[in-house]
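quick q for whoever's on today - can somebody do inverse folding on this one?? i tried earlier but teh output was garbage lol. tokens:
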């Protein structure tokens, strides 16, 4: 049984302190500045992540205007996760991250999406030790920033290949490896293989972060018990319950973040306001719908909210539908003024 790990659990990545060793997962359409600021409301994230960013597109983004790149000063340290298939794609993007004052660069070796694999990136790179090594070594030569990698377990349960791959990352200069505990072909219905994350932990000396289906403190405790990993990366569980990081930090790492019963309609409204600050209407509508799919799980019959907001054609319609749901689901909610929501 894991007891609170306290100060000794803090990680140091090239002198960059990560305390507690808790990371938000890079989730498409969700891991942007608006959600990271929501996490900041509760505390507990030791290192923030962007969503997966296509390296070849990043040089065309304005770091001061692009909602994919922008961040507030409080979102520190921040890891920019880059997707690339070749050094030629990757290296210009690294310069963009350095120019945006990023603290960490993470290379994606785990995305199983077919379009990503067709272009040679994500989990496709795990099939070629040579290509992956060339990509990662080029990144290490190009930057002094902390450099990390996120992987899956591979195509099949193959200890020899997996050990060779993570050992290559370590010898190529990786400062940390995050392991999603599923094979490339396995979906969320399959429980993560925390014992295999434990194997990775035993093969390398650099920190190993475990990722996969952390929805509660008990989930996190079991993950640490079985794998012995150095920290946790949390995705869907923290989208549903953004205060989960503070619970994990308090219970597993001996922190003392304030325990607050969240005002769910107020939290949803705050997220919506933050989207307005960073995204144009169609972009923020897509991101509101994505968030609602998870956040609605806090309510009995929350699927009705997800379906209703998901069918909205405009920002104001989506906010009205969310407000109507809250009126029926939360007796303390008295409605909100839509005339201040959605204005640029």
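ok took a stab at it. sequence:
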């Amino acid at each position: 049984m894991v007891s609170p790990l306290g100060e000794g659990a803090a990680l140091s990545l090239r002198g960059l302190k990560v305390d507690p060793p808790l990371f938000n997962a890079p989730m498409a359409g969700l891991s942007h500045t608006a959600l990271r600021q929501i996490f900041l409301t509760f505390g507990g994230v030791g290192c923030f992540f962007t969503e997966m960013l296509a390296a070849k597109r990043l040089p065309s983004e304005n770091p001061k205007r692009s909602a994919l790149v922008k961040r507030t000063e409080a979102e520190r340290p921040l890891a920019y996760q880059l997707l690339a298939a070749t050094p030629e794609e990757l290296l210009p993007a690294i310069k963009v991250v350095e120019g945006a004052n990023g603290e960490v660069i993470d290379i994606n070796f785990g995305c199983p999406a077919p379009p990503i694999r067709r272009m040679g990136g994500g989990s496709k790179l795990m099939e070629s030790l040579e290509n992956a090594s060339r990509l990662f070594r080029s990144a290490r030569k190009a930057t002094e920033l902390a450099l990390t990698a996120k992987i899956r377990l591979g195509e099949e349960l193959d200890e020899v290949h997996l050990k060779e791959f993570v050992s290559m990352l370590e010898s190529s200069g990786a400062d940390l490896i995050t392991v999603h505990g599923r094979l490339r072909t396995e979906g969320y219905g399959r429980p993560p293989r925390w014992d295999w994350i434990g194997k990775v932990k035993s093969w390398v000396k650099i920190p190993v972060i475990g990722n996969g289906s952390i929805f509660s403190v008990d989930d996190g405790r079991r993950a640490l018990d079985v794998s012995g990993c150095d920290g946790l990366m949390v995705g869907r569980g923290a989208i549903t319950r953004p205060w989960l990081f503070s619970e994990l930090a308090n219970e597993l790492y001996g922190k003392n973040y304030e325990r607050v019963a969240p005002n769910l309609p107020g939290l949803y409204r705050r997220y919506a306001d933050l989207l307005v600050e960073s995204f144009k209407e169609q972009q923020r509508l897509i991101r509101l719908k994505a968030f609602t799919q998870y956040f609605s799980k806090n309510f009995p019959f929350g699927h009705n909210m997800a379906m209703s907001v998901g069918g909205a054609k405009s920002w104001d319609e989506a906010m009205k539908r969310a407000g109507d749901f809250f009126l029926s689901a939360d007796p303390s909610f008295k409605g909100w003024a839509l005339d201040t929501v959605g204005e640029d």
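fwiw The mean pLDDT is 93. also Residues 11-253 form a domain with the TIM Barrel fold (CATH 3.20.20.70). so keep that in mind when u check it
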